[in-house]
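Ticket #4471: structure export looks truncated?
Reporter: QA, pipeline team
Priority: medium

Steps to reproduce: submit the single chain below to the structure queue and open the exported record.
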Amino acid sequence: MGKWLKIVACILVVVPLMACATIYFGFSASLPELEGAIETSHISAPVMLERDEYGNPTITAHTRSDLSYVSGYLHAQERFFQMDLSRRLAAGELSELFGALALNTDRENRVHRFRSRATVAIELLSDFERLQLDQYTRGVNDGLADLGVKPFEYWLLNAEPKLWTREDSFLAIYAMFFTLQSSDGDFEWQNHILRKSLPAELVEFLLPERTEWDAPVSEEIAVDNVDIPDSSLLQKGPVAQINVDDAPMLGSNNWAVSGKLTETGAGMISNDMHLALRAPSIWYKLRLKLADGSFDITGVSLPGVPAIVVGSNGHIAWGFTNSNIDHSDLIELRINPENENQYLTDQGYVDFEILEEIIKIAGGSAEIMPVRETVWGPVIIVPDGAEYVYRWVAHMPDGVNLELFNFEKAKSVKEALLLAGKMAIPAQNTLIVDNEGNIAWTLFGKIPKRLEGNYNKIQDWSDGKLVWNDWYPPDESPRIVNPEDGRLWTANARVISGDDFKKVGYSRYDLGARAGQIKKRLFELDYPIAEKDLYDIMLDDEAIFLDRWQRQLIQVLEASNEDAFLPFLERVRNWGGRADKNSVGFRLVREYRTQIFRTLMANAVQACLDYNENCDYGRATKQWEQPLWQLISERPDGWIPDGGSDWQFYFEQQAFEAWKPVILGEINLENYTWGAKNVTKIAHPLSRAVPDLAKYIDMPIVEQSGDSENIPHITGLVNGQSIRMVVSPGHEEDGIMDLPSGQSGHPLSPYFGAGHDEWLNGAMLPFLPGETKWSLEFVPG
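Actual output as written to the record:
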């Protein structure tokens, strides 16, 4: 018996080890090629691919098309699963990989029919652009084929990767439309139901378009000063709390200084794009060079797309922030009362175009989904079940293109501005600087040329008076060139005013507090401004925005007779004034403000909540700080929720609710730090499905300083600074670029997660790839 127990024990140890070894060596076989030679018939001359210790690649070729081929090869070997998720998300094809779990997402996204739209958009490309796209596609499929086995994610999903098509690269761009713009008109619809359910005077107060926090570049604009409406306009009765979205707004920061403020005389730009943080990073760092020295560009690429998204080419450097201009419209449908398959247009009643989309479902039968198209766009269903038509720039035949290929060759700000208005991407605030010291702001992404009318409201377009089918020409795109003070900044808030603002329209602009703080920091810098000066602004976590809330809270606590608040008063007084991960006081102030918003503004919009349970005031505007602060400053009668009449009591009550876990002893005050709440969880898309693998494929969970709103240093649970870049064209060797999560998507890669700690700690890694550690040559054959 003892002998057999020993054998069984041995088996129990050895078999799992063998299984682990099999998994390890199987997964290892899907690692990318790092050294040696690759023979391919798809290039015209030898191409060299060099990687540094962080896995940052430099590709040197003799033609741009050879660079495109090797870029595709590289993306596929390092990031194919990420690319696959992007195309499937945009196309509504996730269910084919994940089964019924993804079916609702596919239904929502398939209505946009982006795979079909990609086919149309590709037909509009130039021969040069189509060649780059085809070469990139060949590279992707060769890179995938040259892996020893399929990427490890497909083993976990028991699935096979599908070959890449040129339409898939457009789908990767359409996926960014889903990320950066609304795909369902949510902003417009939320404003619509507020207007339908609340008195006009109350709506005017709750939805300001301009506030004291605005910091536009072009000119100062007047604040919308609106008196607090009489409380008789409020709906009386019990009040629920409303939610606050603590996720950072998907946007970004960028700023630039002209050559007259730098030692070299070249312009300098800083850019940190705020997007989902995941493993691997959304971006892939890349340097592309032609062997004759005529072309040398470094920046970040989007896996799936054969171009540099932001970066520097030695002559110009550029960076993006989400513009939040008006990119879409919801349109009322007028159905023929005698025929539900027809709708009214200026040509009378016409038939819907019914298109059948087939959604394949892993482990189940395919679903046939009918999509109704109109002359303006597809029919969508909003949260309350109502049907509208959605007019979106992404639906236009030329709403996406590859003009970035032309832009990457620009040699001056002047030349770049001529190209910017031709770009077809999700509209971005673009700052451009050149090696001669010039700087400019403009928009990448086409701007709808609307007819005269109010497009802030959902309206009936059947009379033809509001239809738009065209864009503003490139030379009419708004722009600001070489401002007198030599500084430019954007942060997802309003940038321009006047006639230019009328062109771009009003959408869910961010509150201007972040932009204003960046502006303040830029004007505090001494000459000459260097790369580190601009980088430091990205990590600025001073809580200027919350300063007045801290002072108001001190007054409340000092006036209180509650002894339970005494320990909190000391912490609030000595809060440090920063979103520091070790600060208890900052968390107390921030959560107090959030709690005030939840109850006081719920009281204001209660009629909307009763009218439609999907009413979300926080989605309707990012400017709610103005009416909120006006209420707690002026303290009008009748505005306290649940019929209260004592503002001091109300404020104490909200402080108690905000800090209840500490007051009740569930959490020690010493441990109630900002970092304990402001953690960052950067995860692989599959780690929740395979928890045992999480520790191998996720980045460590960490506490961070910074905040999800209203300061330059944006951090949060799953979103944050997806890149930190500072560069001066012609001086790239002095530039800085930090990325989270590392270059590789493979946990067994020698550089998986490389650079992540430096990103966390603000260690300022070089903009250019470093000394070569691995070399891989591509040879024609």
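Status: closed, not a bug. The export was complete when the record was re-opened. Leaving a note from the reviewer for reference: The CA atoms of residues 48 and 283 lie 22 Å apart.
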